[in-house]
Amino acid sequence: MDLTYAPEDRAFREQCRAWLEANVPRHDLMTLDERRAWHRKLYEAGYVGMLWPKEYGGWGATPMQQAIVQDEMARAGAPPAINGLGIGFIGPTIIVHGTEWQKRRYLQKMLTAEEIWCQLYSEPNAGSDLASLRTRAEDQGDHFVVNGQKIWTSSGPIADWGILLARTDPGVPKHKGISCLLLHMRQPGVEVRPLKQITGHSLFSEVFMTNARAEKRDLLGKPGQGWEIAQTTLGYERGANSLGRVTRYAISFTQLVRAAKDLRRGGRPLLQDPVVRAKMGKLYAELEVQRYAALRVLSALDKGEAPGPFSSVTKLSYTEFEKRFYETALEILGPYGELMSATADYEEVDTSSGEPGTWATAFLWSRAGTIYSGSSEIQKNIIGERVLGLPKEVRADRLRA
Amino acid sequence: MDFSFSSDQQLLRNAARSFLDEHMTPATARTLWEDPRGESEAIWKEMAQLGWLGLSLPEAHGGSGLGMVETAIVLEELGRTACPAAYWPTMLAATAIAEAGSDAQRHRWLPAVASGEVRASVALLDAELDWHPGATATRAERTSDGYALTGAKRYVPWAHVANVLLVPARAPEGLTMFLVEAAAPGLTLSSAPVMDPGMRWVDVTLDRVRVSADAVVGREGAAEASMLALIRRGAVGAAAEMLGAARRCLDMAVAYAKVREQFGQPIGSFQAIRHTCADMYLDVENSHSAVYYAAWALDARADDHEVAASVAKSYVGDAARRVCGEAIQVHGGIGFTWEYDLHVYFKRAKALEVMYGDGDFHRELVLRAVS
Ligand SMILES: Cc1cc2nc3c(=O)[nH]c(=O)nc-3n(C[C@H](O)[C@H](O)[C@H](O)COP(=O)(O)OP(=O)(O)OC[C@H]3O[C@@H](n4cnc5c(N)ncnc54)[C@H](O)[C@@H]3O)c2cc1C
To answer: What's the pLDDT tens digit per position in B175-215?
Structure first.
């Protein structure tokens, strides 16, 4: 056991920090074009697509280096890269399951954010029970015709392409009849309607597919292999970003300390109130434990160990922590925690989406993490069944199957 | 960066586990509860043989020169069997002597600790039950050839089997640490029965106990920092032991949830039970990260080693109490019986939660360091 950073990792961190100091934009990025330009710059510096193999435009870096970049970006308050779903999960899925043609066609443009991707999985009646999805894709010889509805599609309004799960064979048990297609979003049969989130923003959407067309060459893997492929995607989704996230919490905590020194109650700074102190001490202790746990996961990844079902533990741990973190912060901040636009600078914090916001927006965002990518309840089912080996629950669909 | 155990550390863990599984069965522990001393001379000698008693002591004094990570590995296994033994207080006192003691003190005590001839303890708590070193009320008055100590030390673990006690007291020069031998006139012990039958706490009264000037450990008047350092080290060790107790309870709960049937199915198939087990697992794994991070940080003298110790103690204290308690819940009625072993670990975790600074104490230290 040795938790010191290797000399080359320390050197890499220095280098990354210097680059960010010189390059982080000084003003907020307002338009998609501005964000694309920043993304491109990050990519060319080697900070996007770090884990991707070099032959597909990636950098062949280590998980540790990737974590260091995320960590330094959080520290520097750098705007996040875009196309996160594409680069984090969809691209790697194509690398594993895609044809050579698909790899050549899609990967490079995904990395540079020339084409933005979204994930078309959830449906109004298929959320946690994703395999019950009903969107249909009918084989028409050289292409598929897609009909159905997706929902909660992040980046839907700006996406050029989507990774789609659709039923191609209704005659077999639900997990077996699903295929995975790459769907062009900019076509007449695809309609995207933004949905407003509790934060007031519209980052996710509904997607209606009416006789939409997906080419045969855009079938990922084999027909009926969609469920298995979806498991790879979800596998990449869980437990990726580790240190950067914790650093963001730590920066928020520093803001909280500043607020608690500035704000007064009962004639003294909040920071001198023993009740506040107890809450804050506990919060920081928990935050540190998240950091230690992140280092533990990172050290395993760096040695080439697959996180497997343990990534459910990581996801459950930090998403539940994030809720407690902002709940406690808002309790301490009182009315200042309710503000949706910042007047003092300690009212400004980064949300878990990586976008700047206020305590209130961060608090609202913290409700999302325990729902998406497999809710906390689903993670606990996975931990119970696959890590602890507890018996599976008796479920109506399993009885029918 | 490598968060996993080295192969030597893994071997140590395996050896500790198999030794304790064989020699510290729940039945053995229960016999020791009834024993007046409460511990086993034979096991202590075996611990010396296995090298546990000198694990972190300098090689020059009969130790192995290893660190807190290795010590935590052993402590976790001791917690896993709720082993009744004066191990941790002895190691703490010995570490204080190794770090701050004079050559004579090191020669006198360290080889004897490593070989299992003597036991020791640390008397960190005064009558006010406040872990802050500043609250130490025991006085050390100057005499012609040394000091005379007067005061009441509370809940000194395993003091009744200790040959020597490390006693902080207020000397004219300021807070100072003394070595007080068990046979010293003026020293009275009386046991304070606690919830954990495998743990012994002893009230130690000092009435003009005379010690010579060379009983001072470190510099006179300079013990505040070293006492806090000792509490922090104590905290990391206690966290490791609580982790062991919690892991045992998790294992027992999961095993039981697989076999106990109600309503025609194993209770582990009910989500309420399965999710409870998943939460327990999360608590245990995060506790593992906290304990071994803190242990490593202490060994490496990392910048954040002080915060890490307090984080580990406060976090694992809460987590272990939750996990051991939930294990009782998962078991239902059988978990509430004296004969079933769960309460043994529950009580061990609970006893250690309040030692070497409780959660509130350490959370305050954490906040002080970062605000
Ligand atoms: C901000 C955000 C972004 C998202 N982005 C995308 C995206 O880009 N693409 C995409 O496809 N989807 C996306 N989602 C959708 C997300 O994956 C689903 O919301 C999630 O899978 C839960 O499905 P559901 O909303 O239908 O809730 P349901 O599945 O109906 O769940 C409702 C409640 O029931 C519980 N529950 C369900 N099944 C079980 C069970 N077996 N045991 C115990 N409890 C259970 C759940 O935990 C939850 O508490 C996003 C969601 C959010 C909030």
So the answer is: 999 999 999 999 999 999 999 999 999 999 999 999 999 99
Model confidence at B151, in pLDDT bands (50, 70, 90)?
A: very high
Q: Which residue in the block uniquely carries the two structure tokens 């000399």?
A: A7
Q: Is residue B317 part of a domain?
A: yes
Q: Supply the CATH number for residue B151's domain.
A: 2.40.110.10
> Is the C-alpha dihedral spanning B215, B217, B221, B224 positive or negative?
negative
Query: Would B193 be classed as within a structural domain?
Result: yes
Expressed in angstroms, the distance from the first to the final Cα of chain A is 47
Closest protein CA for atom 12 of ligand 1? A122
Parse chain A into domains and list their residue ranges.
Answer: 7-82, 117-223, 241-397
Please indicate whether residue A237 is annotated as part of the active site: yes
* Cα torsion A334, A335, A341, A343: sign: negative
**C-alpha to C-alpha distance for A137 and A166, rounded to whole angstroms:** 6
A1·B4 Cβ contact <8 A: yes
Domain-ending residue, one of B220, B236, B261: B220
Domain A241-397 superfamily per CATH? Butyryl-CoA Dehydrogenase, subunit A, domain 3 (1.20.140.10)
Q: Of the residues B86, B102, B118, which one is the last residue of a structural domain?
A: B118
User: If 0-12 CB within 10 Å is exposed, 13-18 middle and 19+ buried, where does residue A44 land?
Assistant: exposed
Contact A300 B293 (CB under 8 A): no
Please tell me chain B's helix, strand, coil percentages from 3-state DSSP, rounded to the nearest 5. 55, 15, 25
Residue nearest to atom 44 of ligand 1 (CA): A377
CATH classification of the domain holding B25: 1.10.540.10
| pLDDT digit string, tens, across residues A371-398 | 998 999 999 999 999 999 999 888 887 7
Of A277, A288, A383, nearest to B278 by CB-CB distance is: A383
Q: Residue A164's beta-bridge partner residues?
A: A120, A181
- Cβ separation of B3 and A6 shorter than 8 Å? no
CB of B79 within 8 A of CB of B245? Answer: yes
pTM summary value? 0.95
Give the CA distances from residue B289 to residues B69, B251, B277, in Å, rounded to whole numbers and listed in that order. 12, 18, 18
Cβ(A166)–Cβ(A217) below 8 Å? no
Report d(CA B259, CA B261) in Å as an integer: 6
Domain that holds residue B298: 224-370
- Which ipTM was obtained for this model? 0.95
The total domain count for chain B is 3
Residue nearest (by alpha carbon) to ligand 1 atom 16: A372
Query: Which of B17, B164, B23 shows the shortest CA–CA distance to B93?
Result: B164
Classify domain A7-82 at the CATH superfamily level: Acyl-CoA dehydrogenase/oxidase, N-terminal domain (1.10.540.10)
Query: Same structural domain for residues B103 and B193?
Result: no
CATH code for the domain defined by A117-223:
2.40.110.10
- B89 φ/ψ angles, rounded to the nearest 5 degrees: -60, -35
Q: Which residues of B touch A393 (CB under 8 A)?
A: 269-271, 274
Q: Out of A123, A237, A347, A348, pick the active-site residue.
A: A237
